[in-house]
Amino acid sequence: MVSIFLRSLIYNVLFYLLLVFWMLVGIPTFVMPRWAIMNIARYWARSSIWLLRVVCGTKVEYRGLEKIPAGPLIVASKHQSMWETFALLQFFHEPLFILKRELKWIPLFGWYLIKSDMIGIDRAAGGRSLLQMARHAGEAVRRGRQLIIFPEGTRTAVDSPPQYKTGVAQIYVDCGVTCLPVALNSGLFWPRRTFMRYPGTLVVEFLDPLPPGLSRREFIGRVSTAIEEASGRLIEAARREQAKLFGRVPTSASAKA
Description:
Blueprint: H1 2-25, H2 34-56, E1 58-63, E2 73-77, H3 83-87, E3 95-100, H4 109-115, E4 119-121, H5 127-142, E5 146-149, H6 167-175, E6 179-184, E7 200-206, H7 216-246
Helix pairs in contact: 1-2, 5-6, 6-7
């Protein structure tokens, strides 16, 4: 356990140094088209994932890549960790995120969010802000972007009861495009609210796309069922792997992390 603690500490230091490095490298992209900063973001994501494997022994496996449609798309992903907020963007040509507007106020990092035209939302503004966000997202997706969204709205601990927000259904209806559900087990390897990082095989699985035109109720039912069932399967498989590695599942990576 001491070794895991030290590796986690080393990784977190290197992770943020790597982020600073890519932000400095990316400065010239401020006078370039959006694709340039998107490429920098992909390099950051891939190098951070490589670093996680080298330092912490966390391998990553991607399944169902052949199911990713081209063009405008909604990507609805399970959200257990910070990891997927940067890891998923590498698979899409024009990724788009909805995020807290305060993140855009961070020097340099926030300027990149503005440059890449991410959607900031004022959570304190209530329903009016949500409607504006849904309209903005719909317009951006119809222009060809891929909206990566987390239907639960926030990170949830492994085994916590899912709480899918109705807002994602409104966005789906407004966009009128295909939705790609994504299951994962990242919470066992990069738990929320702790700097610990655990070895094993982190799996991301792209599921069967849902066609446009579903009602809001049918969409929420189908997307939540698909994501939860697949994520549950991935989590159980990862726990069996961790049991072999540790003799038990690490406490900090359990459902109450």
